[in-house]
Design a protein that fits this description.
- This protein is an alpha/beta fold and 332 residues long.
- The chain has two domains: 154 residues, Periplasmic binding protein-like II (D-Maltodextrin-Binding Protein, domain 2, 3-Layer(aba) Sandwich), CATH 3.40.190; 139 residues, D-Maltodextrin-Binding Protein, domain 2.
- The chain is built from ten helices and 18 strands.
- Strands 1, 4, 7, 8, 10, 11, 14, 15, 17 and 18 form a ten-stranded mixed beta sheet that branches.
- The relative contact order is 0.22.
- The N terminus is likely disordered.
Length: 332
């Protein structure tokens, strides 16, 4: 590494909230019944907590939620109908929304909700959707905890300069290149972080920012995977996911990643105190917000999801202050 790069000071320390030991999350719906009334796909970030909720929540003693992993086998079977036996597995918030809309348009009953870690109220061109918040997450940046000289405490303006390919603002000098990583296309974390960085995804795709990449070794970068980091790279990371990986509640793919503080505020589980927070959502057809089992499961702060506080917090999130709200509706 060149001498100018070595001059970057490592500022501050990162505070990490360590959760208690817990069992590993389960993949795809497990147990009886095989097919649930509410089958959902989408966000990788909220997969583990929704998988856990699908194992916990029942109506009249029967499990009601079927949450399918963002990654795994190429296809999934969500309902007993033939049309639902070989659905291409959606990976990410955008893919989940698209799959839900396709199912609604086909009226095949294969999907009843999707998971999303970002809010997208753009017109669907079809059925209106309601983004129902259930949890609060903090999002920060991750770097390697070994030889990197990227500071562990940056303000938002500095992060924005890095993601617009102007790393000299952190004292790196013109010969030091920071690789600004993003998760794969369609990721809710990617969309959220781009918004915070003041960049448009279309510009990223078009190559306007040559320092940005969404691939590692030629492969798309999955959300919350710190193993892709190098000494000269940086990536957005969910604090909830980091905490859950650290506690072994979910698979630990942090590698040597550590979380950076933003504006002097350490990354920790108390997400409401962090400068960069987001709500995460379950997306349901607007027409069904007053219909059981959607209403019973997702809608209002007394819904099955909102009242399972222990599961939400076990996976590193806080309960959203407006958990169960139906005010976030896509444009006509």
């Amino acid at each position: 590494m060149n001498q100018k790069a070595k001059k970057i000071a490592v500022i501050g320390a990162v505070g990490l909230f360590v959760l208690g030991a817990a069992g590993a999350a389960q993949a795809d719906p497990s147990g009886s019944p095989q097919y649930r009334q509410l089958a959902g796909v989408g966000s990788d970030t909220t997969t583990p907590v929704m998988n856990a909720l699908s194992n916990d929540l029942t109506i009249n003693g029967t499990k009601v939620l079927g949450s399918y992993d963002a990654t795994g086998s190429a296809t999934i079977a969500t309902q007993s109908a033939a049309a639902c036996q070989a659905i291409a597995r959606p990976n990410g918030s955008t893919a989940g929304r698209t799959a839900l809309l396709a199912s609604l348009a086909a009226k095949d009953g294969c999907l009843q909700f999707s998971r999303s870690s970002s809010l997208n109220l753009a017109s669907t061109g079809g059925a209106q959707l309601t983004y129902v918040p259930f949890a609060l997450d903090g999002v920060t940046y991750a770097i390697t905890g070994t030889d990197t000289t990227i500071p562990r405490n940056l303000d938002l303006a500095t992060l924005q300069s890095i993601y617009t390919c102007n790393p000299t603002v952190v004292g790196s000098g013109p010969n030091y290149a920071i690789t600004a990583m993003l998760p794969q296309a369609g990721s809710g974390t990617r969309s959220f972080w781009e918004g915070k960085m003041g960049i448009a995804d279309a510009d990223v795709v078009a190559g306007k920012y040559p320092c940005i990449t969404d691939k590692s070794n030629g492969q798309p970068i999955e959300e919350q995977d710190g193993r892709v980091l190098t000494d000269t790279s940086i990536i957005p990371f969910s604090i909830a996911s980091y905490d859950a990986e650290e506690s072994q509640t979910i698979q630990d793919v942090r590698g040597s990643a550590v979380l950076g503080a933003i504006g002097g505020v350490a990354a920790q589980q108390i997400n409401s105190a962090f400068p960069v927070t987001r709500e995460v959502y379950n997306v349901i057809p607007t027409a069904d917000t007053s219909t059981a089992p959607w209403s019973t499961t997702f809608v209002s702060n007394q819904s099955l999801v909102c009242t399972d506080v222990s599961t939400i917090t076990k996976y590193g999130f806080s309960v959203a202050p407006d958990c169960g709200s139906t005010t976030n509706v896509t444009a006509p």
